[in-house]
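ugh finaly. both done.
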Amino acid sequence: MRLFLRDHLDIILFYAFNALFLSYVYHRMDGFQTTDGIFYFLFLSFFLLMLLLLLRYVRKRRLYRMLSRDPATLEDMMDLEAADAETNAFLRYNRKCYEAYERKLNTWQAENGRWQTHLMQWVHQMKTPVSVIRLMVQDDTKQLDSFGVLYELDRLQSQMDLMLGLARAGQAKNDLVIEQLSLDALLRDVIRKNKRLFIQHQVFPQMEPGEDGLIRSDRKWLAFVIEQLLHNAVKYSPSHSTIELSIKKDGMYTKLTVRDHGVGIRARDLPRVFELYYTGSNGRESDQSSGIGLYLVKTILDSLGHGVELKSKINEGTEVSILF
């Protein structure tokens, strides 16, 4: 009812002003001889006003009731009918807009679903030959350069994990197992897994003394995030340099910091480094960046409820911190 009154406030005010103005003018011209005549005129005017408002409310009450409540679904207004042609024309227009929106949404969802399905099938299919080749190399180290092959397999595995992470990033919240973790132990596991990466590039991690870092998080997704940060640090660091890793208390937070001494990131690129497919100046110059890694880092950490900070200076290095 309040929405109806607000919608007709201009009519009510105009009608009231008109009745009072006419009664005053008519009285000044000696049209009303008694006070009862003035009140009768005003009563009749307001009676007609209320009759008009009642008629309009009855014709549009279903529309006003619908607009006064929060819809549970978009389909709530689809079956609504009113008594006046104007309201029905408005509702038909809204239905057509909704139908056009639904068609586009269904098309997008179908295409996105097919893309995710194909991508995930491809990644899973690739995992099998990678595992087989790895076993063959480990069993026949005399005829092959096992280190080189295993390093290339690690690269292939890393890229598949990256694409699989991109496909699953939107549903990460549905795949979380939150538990208490030792950040120090998890970090050492990730370093051990990527030891061939460090040896190949001659860039080595250094663990600084600090906290053990007992936190609550998802082991699999957090390991994926740390691995992406280490890969980025190695990728843009010169040979025979180090990556410094530290776990420290920072107020109410536990902070894991990954610091390299590489090329750094230009100031103009810093605001956009977490955007999907944004490679920045370094990526375009070296053709090494996919623009996916840091996007996934930010997306996954947001799902886990952890913060992320990034600082960098050109030719001095980059520092990325995760806040737990």
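ok and the 2nd:
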Amino acid sequence: MKVLVLGLPRTGTQSIADALTQLGFGPIYHMREVGKNKHQALWIEAIDAKFEGVGKPWGREEFEKMLAGFEGVADYPPAIFPAELIAAYPEAAIILSTRDEDGWYASMMSTLWHLHTSRPADDPSPMNQLSRKYHGHCWGNDFPKNGRTCFREHNTLVREASKGRKFLDFQAKDGWVPLCEFLGVPVPEGVAFPRSDDWVEYKKMVEMQKQKQNAAE
């Protein structure tokens, strides 16, 4: 493991994961890998161990069930376990991906939280089961009320747990230079920093729904 990107979702984690891959630090384990590798049940097991005391706390051996072969992580579910991953992979550099709180909150509301509250509670899909677990434990299943507190506490935790380690506080908008300096690699010439977002179409759909609702009122 070379790089742990431990910021919360919607802090540029996908763009940073793609940037790291372009720089030769890959593959990176991002949320998109969960369904592809059918890891939902394993992450639920990890969440149960952390928050519900079911089984022993997870360490490197357990995380390697999902992360073996990857050179980095970004986004949820890994970012649910910042302290655990920092301890499990002492050789890894740490990046805290951040952004302005208001922008992050609005983005979460129109993506992860909107999807979570739109799904039927009895949706049996593995991804929904995982989603319900982390929404319940990370912000008490009430993101509008508790999301901002989670954002602040999470960032503080990562900064504290990273003391003494190779660490970068980073926003994707800052681009290649600080990231490349941190990693000790050349800045790609003539290559734009990735602006990746799997949620683009979903956000457009949410905005269209809002417009229709406003027009009907």
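summary for the 2nd one i guess: Residues 3-216 form a domain with the Rossmann fold fold (CATH 3.40.50.300).
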